[in-house]
Amino acid sequence: MLVVRAYNAILDAMTPTERKLFAEHIKRLDKKIKPGLSRLTWKMGGISEYYVKDCVRACKELFDTIMAFKENVVKIHKKCQFIKETLLVNIEKNTVYDDGVFELVQDRHRRNVKNVLRRSFEEIRGLLLENYACFRADPISIQNEWWKFVERFDKQLEDCLRHTVKKSLLDLSKAINGDPKTKDISPLFKVDVILTDAAQPKVEFKPAIPMLTQSVNNVLKEMIHVVSVVPRLREIHFQTAEEERIDRKS
């Protein structure tokens, strides 16, 4: 019964996707348990006791491996969510920016965000490689399941990056044009109105409206470019796994 409970705990803990990934592990565990279903009997005394302990130990090792795998998956989901919530613009509430200050603030913010995105990506990649160690020596059928698994995270990461770009664009639009729901518009840029002292006096704006528009467009362009620091997860992971495979052969 100890072996049965330990074995069932493994099966109950796994999702359908995890059952496919850990199919070879289960097969090896089945091979270890099989003698107790056919050849061994309780009359064998010490041999049966050793068999039970050995099988329970093997079940516990696989169960712990699966739990560690799951924990890493949860960490990856959290990292993706963190990326999703990372804004690419920094607009302080009730702040009016002087000429040139807005671009400087956004430039500084983008540099910080790039570092955050790079660090988050490397952590995700490291967690995937840690999980891949469970299947590195498994046959091609398991490798194919693993790459499907990586593809899903690659898509999730792409969706998170799309979301943060969209959310950042909406926040910038709201800061400039006001909130469409509340109709509340707060000034974002300081524009001086100057009456020129010339033969034909006229009103000028400083900074000029075209210059201000160009400044905002530059911020938009650079903001969207920020997410390019995150490469495709599937390509980087495949490259790293292939390099490790070559290193083991050499």
What's the topology here?
Layout: H1 2-13, H2 16-21, H3 23-33, H4 35-38, H5 46-84, H6 101-132, H7 140-177, E1 192-195, E2 203-206, H8 209-225, H9 233-249
Antiparallel strand pairs: 1-2
Helix pairs in contact: 1-5, 3-5, 5-6, 5-7, 6-8, 6-9
Mean pLDDT: 87
Coarse morphology: rod-shaped
Give me the secondary-structure category: mainly alpha
Evaluate the radius of gyration: 29 Å
Looking across the biggest beta sheet, what order are the strands in? Answer: 1-2
Residues in β-strands, percent: under 5%
Low-confidence stretches: none
Largest sheet: 2 strands, antiparallel
What is the succession of H and E elements?
A: HHHHHHHEEHH
Portion of residues within helices: over 70%
Q: Got a strand count?
A: 2
Distance between the termini: 46 Å
**Count of alpha/pi helices:** 9
Report on the structure:
It is a single chain. Helices cover 70% and strands 3% of the residues. It is mainly alpha-helical and 250 residues long. It has a two-stranded antiparallel ribbon. The protein is rod-shaped and about 110 Å long.
